[in-house]
Amino acid sequence: MEKRRMQRFFEQNGGLLLQQQLGSLAASGVAFKIFSEERRRRDQQGHGWLASPRRGSSAAEATASSTGAPSPTYGSTVAVKRSRVVEEKQLREEFSREMLIFSQINHKNVVKLLGCCLEVQVPMLVYEYSANILLDGELTAKVSDFGASRLAPAADEAEVATLVQGTCGYLYPEYLLTCQLSSKSDVYSFAVVLLELLTGRKAFCPPPDRAAGSESDQDDDDDRSLAFFFLTAAHKGRHRELDDAAELVMQCLSMAGEERPTMKEVADRLAGMRSRASSELRL
């Protein structure tokens, strides 16, 4: 009975199609794995899968230190995510195609999708773990979470979303009220991240879970990592960079979208700050 139930979930979540497509890519060296539910349970009991959960807008995320076999990535820490809401049938059918695309993305600045478990009602995804939304343990910038991504509208246009998606604290306030996206929406979200870097504090801090005390310690470590670059600048007396960055943040966080700079302007100004700092170091 249990095996039949898991097989039904596997097929329902597009497992057969994904399995077939991955087989055709075996020669290209794609390392994506489909983990069985039995394997997941065994690893969860022995190595902490789904420990210390952290929630996003459409998924519950957890970290697991995989220090012994069997584990998704032997000797490493992984992030395990699963949706909180069962998607519609049409979206489930697209799941395998999306996994196939993500499995082939291999870039140092993109969080690697290592595999998935489909023998459950809600699929689970296994990623390499990045300490926070910007940097891994070696301070390499990482990008992840494309599930809510959409093509950006033209600069003078707005797009109406049917469902508000995103993480509290990072969303453009008017988007929460009107569901309207514009080219300036991401400018606000980026500014929140930059503000985290400047202050060493997170944009949204829910009350700590006393049952997961170790997670608060991890959050403290993440905060220190976020502030690393700007604190270094302050210690070296380079307050101009901090002032310039703070001014840029305030402009990007303007409640009036038309008063915010474009992302290109933001990138140009940040590049200018870096260039000036590099020139001063060479003097």
UniProtKB/TrEMBL annotation:
What InterPro entries has UniProt attached to this entry?
A: Kinase-like_dom_sf, Prot_kinase_dom, WAK-like
Query: Taxonomically, which superkingdom?
Result: Eukaryota
Q: Where is the composition biased (Low complexity)?
A: 56-73
Which stretches does the entry tag as region Disordered? 43-75
Q: Name one GO biological process term.
A: cell surface receptor signaling pathway
Task: Extract the SUPFAM superfamilies matched here.
Answer: Protein kinase-like (PK-like)
* Keywords (A to Z) from UniProt: ATP-binding, Nucleotide-binding
Domain (Protein kinase) ranges: 1-273
Record-level GO cellular component terms? plasma membrane
Pfam families for the chain: Pkinase (PF00069)
Give an example GO molecular function.
ATP binding
Q: What is this protein called?
A: Protein kinase domain-containing protein
Organism field? Oryza punctata
